[in-house]
Design a protein that fits this description.
The complex is a heterodimer of chains A (428) and B (197). Chain A has 428 residues and is mainly alpha-helical. Chain A is built from 20 helices and one strand. Chain B is an alpha+beta fold. The longest helix of chain B is centred in the first third of the chain and has 16 residues. The chains are: A mainly alpha (428), B alpha+beta (197).
């Protein structure tokens, strides 16, 4: 039975890899098939309809709310010009030293990455950050990679992600926070190294481009007409982080405080209602794809946690999962590429199901699985040529996602190795 | 064809545009200048142009490489600092030379001047690779990033070096009009989309 479930999972991965099915749809179909193969009844206790679909779909509800709030805050940062102002100031201060500009944009991306993830985060930092870097001579691949590496620095402090891992792996938020704090230095060092090493290797480049002269100045957007955001509003991305990390406030109130701070520091009282609603609705649009994915992941997790599925998979997974710490680090570091191209270790795909199996079958403690999942997420978030942020950043810079993958993979692979070492040393 | 392309469909329409207007357009399209006062951009463009025109002419010390995928990449030339190399996109240069004949602009851009301008343009970027030249341009433009009492930090103006490089090429090659005019006409002729980033 276990072999059949693994074959079903492999078929699901193939469907996602070949893009025959969107990931969210593939995961739901996978969940239902796994539940039937595991011998779950149609209705009742541990059933396909009542357990997998009904209880699984809202299982990650807290994460979905956090995603909406993060996207709302992201929209506010965009509309109030906080992110754009930060990038503009960085270029003005350090424009004649491209490495300084890249480090500055890296810092902005990291701040943005703590608030929201995926393509919206890349857009928030990259819309101005990427062309600004290119304008000061940073090569295109380096520029795109800087945005992604920067977002990856922020990922360990992305509050919606804490909520996701806490709910999905059934771990308390302080445990998730504790591991993320340990993962952060690896992400930071790798990102700073990326900027220095790639700048040194590639130097600067300037092009005489046929696209350099616009036909006529574009009419300024609403944000551009408003000018720069005030300096104290630039602290907005740090507000939720300080509250959640420094004061150990819960995730949703921390994000709400960020929304409130952005609003009062940038908006006249009579315009507040309008702006709040406009950005909230805009935030829902941004949050729709990850929410769809989290509904599907919740359903998949419910399926792989069914007693029949656990019973069938436990002996198989146990046989191939190393228990020795050194072997654990070695094997799972070598398996890093399996989280690319929507592979089976992608945390926001089948990887979530595998994590669920590893925990519910008692093969690894949940904290070790957290270490694995977050380490793989650092790779996926930067180098996966199919992830939306990588595709967006690469295409906006005018290069291919594969070029960005090749350039960034060594750095994020090292981050994953660091994370796996910490997980093995601390929890295994 | 989108509106942006339609607006540039006739390369000759750029002929009536002042060189400085084209420089202002370049600045306006450069990130970080969104929503800036056009008069300010014009002043910066004028200063950068004068700075580039006054740069000491010098030989191109970088290695010169020829490529033939410029029309695909929409590039005429590229300078990379490691190793110091100037890439000339010969297919774009050839297309530019043909276009000059088609538009009757030969008095402004003599035969072979496009390649010369491309080399000069990238040589100017090599000049800006040196801190003193960059600082001198910042001082000439005089845009303030921060002022604390008597302390004043001058700001980098993105795009100013590009305008200066075009002005340098125009002066060194003795062109009748800015290479920016040729760039705009060439973009229209080959159907280059408007700058997106």
């Amino acid at each position: 039975m276990g072999v059949v479930i693994l074959l079903v999972m492999a078929a699901g991965v193939a469907a996602m890899l070949t893009r025959k099915l969107p990931t969210a749809f593939a995961l739901v179909i996978l969940a239902v098939v796994i539940a039937f193969v595991a011998g779950a009844p149609l209705t009742g206790e541990n059933s396909v309809i009542d357990t997998v679909l009904q209880e699984g779909a809202p299982a990650l509800a807290a994460t979905m709310i956090a995603i909406v709030l993060g996207s709302w805050l992201g929209k506010l940062l965009e509309e109030t010009g906080v992110a754009a102002t930060l990038v503009r100031k960085i270029v003005e201060f350090g424009g004649d030293r491209p490495v300084v500009v890249a480090l500055g944009v890296l810092a902005v991306s990291a701040l943005v990455g703590t608030v929201t993830g995926s393509a919206p985060a890349a857009m928030l930092a990259g819309l101005i950050g990427i062309p600004a870097m290119i304008a000061v001579g940073i090569p295109k691949v380096t520029a795109a990679g800087t945005i992604l590496m920067g977002i990856a620095v922020g990922i360990p402090f992305e509050l919606p992600l804490w909520q996701f891992f806490s709910t999905a792996l059934e771990l308390p938020v302080p445990t998730v926070r504790g591991f993320m704090v340990k993962l952060f230095p690896f992400a930071l060092v790798a990102a700073v190294l990326y900027v220095f090493v790639e700048s040194r290797r590639r130097g600067v480049e300037h092009t005489w481009s046929l696209k350099s002269v616009a036909d006529k100045p574009r009419s300024p957007s609403r944000r551009q007409r408003l000018g720069d955001a005030p300096w104290y509003a630039l602290l907005t991305p740090a507000v939720p982080l300080i509250l959640a990390l420094g004061f150990e406030l819960a995730i949703i109130p921390s994000l709400l405080a960020g929304v409130l701070y952005a609003l009062v520091t940038t908006t006249r009282p009579r315009e507040m209602n309008k702006r709040l609603l406009r950005t909230l609705y805009g935030g829902f649009e941004v949050a729709a794809p990850p929410i769809a994915l989290f509904i599907a992941i919740g359903i998949l997790l419910a399926a792989v946690k069914l007693p029949g599925a656990v019973e069938a998979l436990e002996p198989l997974v146990k046989a191939v999962s190393p228990q020795n710490a050194v072997l654990f680090v070695g094997v799972f570091t070598l398996l890093v590429p399996l989280c690319l191209y929507r592979g089976p270790l992608n945390v926001f795909g089948l990887g979530a199901g595998i994590a669920g199996v590893l925990i519910s079958a008692g093969i690894y403690p949940a904290a070790v699985v957290l270490g694995m999942a977050t380490s793989y997420n650092q790779v996926f978030g930067v180098a996966d040529p199919t992830s939306t942020q990588t595709v967006w950043a690469a295409q906006y810079a005018g290069v291919s996602p594969q070029q960005v993958m090749v350039r960034t993979l060594p750095y994020v692979w090292a981050v994953a190795l660091g994370g796996l070492c910490v997980a093995a040393a601390t929890y295994l | 064809m989108n509106r942006a392309l339609a607006a540039t469909a006739d390369p000759a329409t750029h002929q009536a545009t002042d060189d400085l207007d084209l420089a202002v357009r370049l600045l306006a399209g450069t990130p970080t200048h969104e929503g800036r006062d056009p008069a300010l951009l014009r002043r910066w463009a004028e200063t950068a142009d004068a700075f580039g025109a006054a740069l000491e002419p010098g030989p191109c010390r970088a290695r010169i490489v020829e490529r033939d995928d410029g029309l695909e990449e929409l590039l005429l030339a590229r300078y990379t600092s490691r190793p110091a190399t100037v890439e000339i996109y010969v297919d774009t240069v050839d297309r530019a030379e043909k276009l000059i004949d088609e538009l009757g602009w030969r008095s402004w851009y003599p035969v072979g001047s496009v390649r010369g301008a491309a080399l000069a343009h990238e040589t100017a970027h090599e000049h800006f690779h040196h801190k003193e030249t960059r600082t001198a341009l910042k001082e000439a433009i005089g845009h303030t990033a921060l002022r604390l009492g008597r302390l004043r930090v001058l700001a980098h103006v993105a795009g100013a070096e590009e305008i200066a490089a075009h002005a340098y090429a125009r002066t060194v090659c003795g062109l009748g009009r800015s290479p920016l005019l040729l760039t705009a006409a060439l973009a229209a002729a080959v159907g280059a989309p408007r700058r997106e980033n």
